[in-house]
Amino acid sequence: MIRIITRTRLAALRQDAAQARAHKREVQASADAAYARHVRAVHDLTAEAEAEAADGKAAEADARAHELRRALDQANLDLAAIRASVIEQAARIEALSGDLDAMAEAVVLLHYGKLHSVHPDRAAAERHAASFGVGPGGWSPVADRPTAESAWLISPLREWAVVEGGDAG
To answer: Which residue from 135, 103, 136, 143 is spatially nearest to 121, judged by alpha carbons?
Structure first.
């Protein structure tokens, strides 16, 4: 079908098209402005969320730092207690070392193989044995007899000290 358009009608159509294009430009400008506002809002919300997250992380970091400070303070207290214990143990070791040095010459006096007494040296053991009427030379075992058959015996303490496991040695 063929349609005949007059100039007036063509001018009106052109005017309508121009108005439609102008309206399109207005709508596009409005849409662009709305999109820009949306992008700014998203950006602002993202920045705000990041700031809140950073604040939360900072608070967590502060709490963790506080916990670590408390743990460090406790570790320092424990270290001080351990140092005091080490100093005490060193003093005890030194005292025991002195006792050990004093006992290096210690002897035991045995009566028929059983412990009778402990003495700082052989001379003290001999004096003690003499108080029981044992004369000089009376405290050594007969070479062929076991210790249990000897009336009196003087022996170094280190040979009779208890060793690990409880066995006499």
So the answer is: 103
Residue 81 lies in a domain: yes
Residue 128 has a CB neighbour count (10 Å cut-off) of 17
Calculate mean pLDDT across residues 112-129: 85
- CA dist 92 and 86 (Å) reads 10
Q: What is the pLDDT of residue 117?
A: 87
Q: Say yes or no: 89 and 147 in one domain.
A: no
Give residue 97's identity as a one-letter amino acid code: S
Same-domain pairing of 128 and 59: no
Q: Does the model's pTM come out above 0.70?
A: no
> Does a structural domain hold residue 166?
no
* Terminal CA-CA length for the chain: 133
What 3-state DSSP class applies to 125?
A: helix
Identify the CA nearest to 117 among candidates 101, 100, 134: 134
Q: Is-contact 147 133, C-beta < 8 A?
A: no
> Does residue 89 share a domain with residue 34?
yes
